[in-house]
Design a protein that fits this description.
The protein is of the alpha/beta class. The chain folds into two domains: 250 residues, Type I PLP-dependent aspartate aminotransferase-like (Major domain) (Aspartate Aminotransferase, domain 2, 3-Layer(aba) Sandwich), CATH 3.40.640; 101 residues, Alpha-Beta Complex (Aspartate Aminotransferase, domain 1), CATH 3.90.1150. It has 16 helices and 15 strands. The strands form three sheets. The chain has a seven-stranded mixed β-sheet, sandwiched between helices. A hairpin with a 2-residue loop joins strand 14 and strand 15. The protein is globular and about 70 Å long. The two termini are 27 Å apart. The relative contact order is 0.14. Its EC number is 2.6.1.82. Pfam families: Aminotran_3. Keywords: Aminotransferase, Pyridoxal phosphate, Transferase. This is Putrescine aminotransferase.
Length: 461
């Protein structure tokens, strides 16, 4: 349990007003003008605030608390691939906000677009046609594979997956889905039904009915389920849902024939194919979209995370004109008040521009190969610690012999001012998911600190 003991809550309007103004005064103070007293106030209060008002369980898992001797590490300032807390401590960011920061933290062109839109209108009226949403949809229609033409924008990847599930059910008139073990698709009740990790599912059962799970990368298992359903006349599968490369399971790359076979099998049985590109999309794996590695066009594609350029939350799902037509008689079948707002659209449009101008997919592919080569040498030096390395582009994972070793390496890197973490579905697997434009000098520095960490861990076991 955390050492921070929750205190009773109670209504105090004056205190609420005072506390809001206290942090706003600090936010509105130029960084160079912040006093030591202000900095210490923020850093000393953050852990207690989490314990009393967010979830004290987080404090047992956050290295910013467990590995920090004095003031808790605060998420305060970032630029490019460097994070700095309010006390001035700097870290190399190899976590990338779990895939948010593909163009780096606070990319100036994306920030500028969001600021410019903020000076016009931060939200839309809900009645007038909003030009940025329409333009972003057009841009994405030209960017996505195949004949994907229409889309809906939301705020999180989970919402995008939920929307894709609704679309598949509406179009096909069926209620079932095939998902994969180890898959991560979000934690709303709909997306959670697809998620392939029991620890998050079991306490909330029953979830949506008709969802079957098969091993990831096993196209034969998908075909077998569909063949049985078809042969007994009980075909109730609306769609097969999978990640091009599994993210939270630990950068798991499927066999090369997996996605082409999924496409062929789904087409043969009249089942939709949904690609969850929330983590793999927009250059992360070395291609614009993960499915581009296998030249496959899904029927529905979901994206999020990097779509907002690391500046504004943004997600969406897109499909073909034929499938989308089921939403046209009543376009209010799926709505959101804030999804696709002008700020998010401006950030997304600027983020796509940055991705193409800087060739972020190409950078990810090249730097991913570089890291894999260097990590391979470390694996040869420390085979008793580092069991495997895998992934594509800059969605990479280091696989350790057990959870304890993985934690020791993450902790060692943190103490050496490198920020990374284990994957959500597998704590013995440590992700490397930096900005796609991270300089080679920083990669080399991370590799040097990693080697020092592995050497230290090796001596301790």
């Amino acid at each position: 349990m955390s050492k921070h003991t929750p205190t009773p809550a109670g209504r105090d309007i004056e205190l609420a007003f005072s506390e809001a103004n206290k942090i706003l005064d600090i936010i509105n103070t130029p960084e160079a003008a912040l006093s030591d007293e202000q900095r210490k106030w923020v850093s000393s209060n953050v852990a207690d605030n989490f314990a009393n008002h967010v979830n004290r369980g987080f404090l047992d898992y956050r290295k910013s608390v467990t590995e920090t001797d004095d003031f808790a590490l605060t998420d305060w300032y970032g630029q490019g691939s460097i994070l700095r807390d309010i006390m001035g401590r700097e870290y190399i960011d190899m976590l990338g906000g779990f895939g948010l920061y593909s163009p780096g933290i606070r990319h100036p062109k994306i920030v500028a677009a969001a600021k410019a839109q903020l000076d016009r209108s931060p939200q839309y009226s809900q009645e007038m046609l909003d030009p940025l949403r329409g333009q972003l949809a057009k841009v994405l229609a030209k960017l996505t594979p195949g004949d994907l033409q229409y889309g809906f924008f939301a705020n999180s990847g989970t919402e995008a997956v939920d929307g894709a599930m609704k679309l598949a059910k509406l179009y096909t008139g069926r209620r079932g889905f095939i998902s994969t073990t180890g898959g991560f698709h979000g934690k709303s009740l709909g997306a959670l039904s697809l998620l392939g990790k029991s620890v998050y599912r079991e306490p909330l059962l029953p979830l949506l009915g008709g969802v079957r799970h098969v091993p990831y990368g096993d196209a034969d298992a998908v075909e077998q389920l569909l063949k049985i359903a078809d042969s007994v006349g009980s075909m109730d599968v609306a769609a097969v849902v999978a990640e091009p490369i599994q993210g939270e399971a630990g950068a798991v790359v499927p066999p090369d024939d997996y996605w082409p076979r999924l496409r062929e099998i789904c087409s043969r049985y009249g089942v939709l194919l949904i690609a969850d590109e929330v983590q793999t999309g927009f250059g992360r794996t070395g291609k614009i979209f993960g499915v581009d590695h296998w030249d496959v066009a899904p029927d529905i594609i979901c994206f999020g995370k990097a779509l907002g350029g690391g500046v504004v939350p943004m997600s969406g799902f897109f499909s073909t004109a034929e499938i989308w037509s089921c939403l046209e008689p009543n376009p209010f079948m799926h709505t959101t008040t804030t999804g696709g707002n002008p700020l998010a659209c401006a950030a997304a449009l600027a983020g796509i521009g940055v991705m193409l101008e800087e060739n972020l997919p190409g950078q990810a592919a090249e730097k991913g190969r570089y890291l894999l080569q260097k990590l391979g040498r470390l694996k040869e030096q420390y085979p008793h610690i580092l069991k495997d390395i895998r992934g594509k582009g800059l969605l990479l994972a280091m696989v350790f012999e057990n959870d304890e070793l993985g934690y020791k390496v993450v902790s060692g890197l943190f103490k050496r001012k490198v920020l990374t973490a284990g994957t959500l579905n597998n704590s013995s697997v440590v992700r490397l998911e930096p900005a796609l434009n991270i300089p080679y000098e920083l990669l080399d520095e991370v590799l040097a600190r990693l080697e020092d960490t592995l050497q230290n861990v090796s001596h301790a076991i």
